[in-house]
Specification:
single chain; Arp2/3 complex 21 kDa subunit ARPC3; about 0% strand; globular
Amino acid sequence: MRWILSTVIFLLVMLEGTFFQLLSLPQLGTSIELIPRLTLAVILYISLYAGRHEGLLFGLFTGFLTDFVYGGTLGIFTLTFGLIGYLIGLFHRYFHHNIFLLGTAAIIVYLTHEHLLLLIVEILRFSPMEYGAYLRNVMLPSALFNSLFVMAVFIPMDRLMKQFLDDTERKERQRQS
């Protein structure tokens, strides 16, 4: 079952860098830019359904894959996705699987992730950015877009995650026998 989730993550990483680049809003003459973090949505689902350990593992895997595919500084996405996966997983026992709560959580997760990236970029002094313009033109529209994606894929991801948990529990019982 993990290979299915890994394949979904791999396909979403490729989709983020190909298809969504064609839909770039600045090419249409607007200052708003959408940054799809579809893989972050999958990490949200995995962490909330399976817990912090699975969230950390899939977050590290997704972050490394993102770092590797898109270049830049190796390790930034590995660190942030792994940390986000772990932190979200801390709440998995208290979180009810509801489409609107997941949409709200997606906004919080996305904004937290982007703030972590901004902090790292600022610490490493990669590029100066005006925070207000970045928040208004990139972070908030992207958070809304990613939240809508989380809500749009709720039913298939809910089924996939329940199947993942069933397979994990079955393997755990077999190991104990």
